[in-house]
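step=encode ok
step=design start
structure_in=
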């Protein structure tokens, strides 16, 4: 066994309940000679919270193709002789007692997975159901509790605070992860030798010299905002943005996606202008810009007073709309999309 330190990051929380009376003995007491005297009676219908969390130090699943992943999701039994079988390691915490919103007692468990599980869980509903079922199964195996598959999803990332902890994992899994990490490192080095990680952007003078030498100058393109090192220049862009007739609005869809619509003058129908646009989306910030035209910076991490001051040239309706957007959940960067509707002079961003 190998000891590793975890600092879990909250993913999402579900709640379920026991379907029959049982007894619960915390792991820390199971090795005690008097453990049978310290078991706690758990009645039917006792509420259980499950925190699904992520940590890079949890062993990741082995490499597997989509067929192997689908077999695991369908609950097919593992064949120890089949090297293509796929499984998901998970570390289940000791249950801790807490109370629900009504003050009734409950149990809380943390199920911690490797970070690589997060992205598919966010974008694939069936895979998320698989991770939830796996979490419930591991809790049942560890505690002998029998849990209901009728679950709720409280509007919290985690029940209680996720604490750092040290756990023991099988050495075999640790060696497999070390080997996988070494392979990823070698692949990364190989890619870095094929393509430069940093590309120099030439000044106009340098471009002219190269052009005179008969060489082609290729301008790099980016979908991300290029930050300005000159505060005065950045402020100038904001001033331009305030003077150009650019409006925006937002709404929430039935499937809980936030849609942000940016409307611009017909000048933005030009392909050369559209190709220069930059969009940067963070959990609490959205920045859309077209160099030499404007910058729209929706920074929801600012205080209400700062937001009102920043958009003081806007109408009261726009300011109130921004404050209402700030009260919504963080932007879901993993599933973010953006689409130009050129004929309508608008950009639709979905987060």
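sequence_out=
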């Amino acid at each position: 066994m190998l000891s590793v330190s975890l600092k879990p990051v909250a993913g999402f929380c579900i709640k379920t309940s026991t379907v029959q009376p049982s007894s619960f003995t915390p792991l820390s007491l199971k090795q005690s000679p008097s453990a049978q005297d310290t078991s706690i009676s758990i009645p039917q219908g006792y509420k259980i919270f499950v925190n699904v969390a992520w940590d890079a130090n949890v062993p990741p699943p082995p490499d597997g193709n989509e067929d192997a992943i689908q077999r695991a999701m369908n609950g097919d039994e593992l064949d120890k002789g089949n090297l293509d079988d796929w499984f998901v390691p998970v570390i289940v915490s000791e249950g801790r007692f807490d109370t629900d919103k009504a003050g009734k007692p409950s149990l809380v468990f943390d199920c911690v997975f490797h970070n690589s599980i997060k992205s598919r869980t966010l974008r694939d509903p069936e895979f998320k159901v698989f991770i939830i079922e796996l979490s419930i199964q591991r809790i049942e195996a560890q505690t002998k509790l029998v849990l209901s598959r009728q679950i709720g999803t409280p509007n919290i990332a985690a029940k209680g605070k996720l604490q750092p902890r040290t756990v023991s994992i099988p050495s075999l899994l640790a060696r497999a992860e070390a080997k996988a990490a070494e392979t990823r490192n070698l692949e990364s080095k190989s890619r870095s030798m094929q393509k430069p990680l940093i590309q120099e952007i030439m000044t106009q003078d340098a471009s002219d010299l190269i052009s005179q030498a008969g060489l082609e100058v290729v301008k790099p393109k980016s979908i991300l905002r290029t930050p300005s090192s000159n505060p005065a220049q950045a402020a100038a862009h904001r001033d331009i943005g305030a003077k150009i007739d650019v409006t925006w609005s937002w709404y929430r869809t039935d499937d809980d996606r936030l849609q942000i619509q940016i409307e611009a003058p017909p000048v933005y129908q030009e392909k050369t202008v559209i190709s220069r646009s930059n969009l940067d989306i963070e959990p609490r910030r959205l920045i859309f810009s077209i160099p030499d035209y404007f910058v729209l910076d929706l920074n929801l991490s600012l205080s209400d007073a700062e937001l009102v001051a920043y958009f003081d040239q806007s109408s009261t309706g726009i300011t109130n709309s921004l404050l209402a957007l700030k009260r919504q959940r963080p932007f879901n960067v993993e599933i973010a999309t953006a689409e130009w509707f050129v004929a309508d002079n608008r950009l639709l961003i979905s987060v």
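step=design ok
step=annotate ok -> DSSP finds ten helices and 16 strands in the chain.
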